[in-house]
Design goal:
It is a single chain. With 272 residues, the protein is of the alpha/beta class. It has a single domain (4-271), classed as Glycosidases (TIM Barrel, Alpha-Beta Barrel). The chain has helices at 20-30, 50-67, 82-96, 116-133, 144-147, 150-155, 176-187, 210-222, 259-271; strands spanning 4-8, 34-40, 70-76, 102-105, 139-141, 163-170, 192-198, 227-232. An eight-stranded parallel beta sheet has the order 4-3-2-1-8-7-6-5. α2 links the parallel β2 (34-40) and β3 (70-76). α1 runs parallel beside α2 and α3 (82-96) runs parallel beside α4 (116-133). The longest helix is centred in the N-terminal third of the chain and has 18 residues, at 50-67. It is globular and about 45 Å long.
């Protein structure tokens, strides 16, 4: 089963869309079957304001459960903060682990400075805490080099059941060479999930690369890999699905949606 959906933006910067109304609209109008709730960890996020940021994540989780959507709970950071991640995911698993809707993403995008062994240590600590509280739900482990070296992870995997590895791409920056890495990981029997992808450059800007987007869609559908687009946002960025300064949480009009948003919406609606 391929899950197709949308990622919200960093929780501390675009909180307007962490709402039941947004999820309802994404399900009904865009055809999503999965959403991603990125907990912004640094930059005045969870580390500085834990109660406020945690509340946003709980709101999205509860709405997803009510709507019958899968939800990726994402530790959205480039540096690990392992002790705080262990605490956070333990609390999430304790409260929501009985629901099959929940998917855990213990580390969004490890920065290039971290080795796979560094990343494995973080994942192991977090996953052990999750599994102490529930044993069933999928965990998607971030991989080194901004979630691109999935073949490295496949060659030295974590020893936990029901686990996949995160593959991230931006179509104008990543093409066949990254798909080749993914192919190698798949041949080693590794499960992959694209918890974040973009239609443009990896910095979130620049023109759309429609041709490369279509190559990626073909690859993902052929290999039955689920994928979530970045992002539900009204920032002045190519990757945002809404035009700048749109504040409506739902019921977006044609003129409210960006060029990238229209491209993604058409694909999502085809899949339902």
């Amino acid at each position: 089963m391929v899950l197709r959906g949308m990622s919200l933006f960093w929780s501390q910067w675009q909180p307007a869309y962490f709402t039941p109304a947004t999820l309802q609209w994404l399900k009904d109008d865009w055809g999503v079957t999965i959403v991603r709730a990125p907990l912004g960890v640094h930059h005045q996020g969870y580390l500085e304001n834990p109660a406020a940021e945690r509340s946003k994540i709980d709101t999205v989780i509860e709405a997803a459960i009510e709507l019958g959507l899968y939800v990726v709970v994402d530790w959205h950071a480039h540096h690990p903060e392992t002790d705080r991640a262990v605490q956070f995911f333990g609390e999430i698993a304790e409260k929501f682990g009985q629901y099959p809707n929940i998917i855990y993403e213990p580390w969004n995008e490890p920065a290039a400075e971290y080795s796979w062994q560094d990343i494995k240590r973080h994942h192991t600590a977090v996953i052990e805490r999750i599994r102490a509280r529930e044993s069933r739900n999928l965990i998607v482990a971030g991989t080194r080099n901004w979630c691109r070296d999935v073949d490295v992870a496949a060659n030295d995997p974590l020893s936990f059941p029901n686990l996949a590895y995160a593959l991230h791409f931006y179509a104008a920056s990543h093409g066949q060479a990254l798909r080749d890495k993914a192919e190698r990981a798949l041949r080693m029997g590794t499960a992959l999930m694209v918890t974040e992808w973009g239609t443009c450059r990896e910095d979130g800007n620049g023109p759309l690369d429609r041709s490369e987007v279509r190559r990626w869609w073909h690859f993902l559908e052929k290999n039955q890999i689920s994928y979530l687009n970045w992002s539900v946002s009204s920032r002045n960025e190519t990757s945002a699905i809404l035009r700048p300064d749109i504040r409506a949480q739902a019921a977006w009009h044609h003129k409210d949606i960006s060029e990238s948003g229209h491209l993604v919406r058409r694909q999502l609606r085809r899949g339902r």
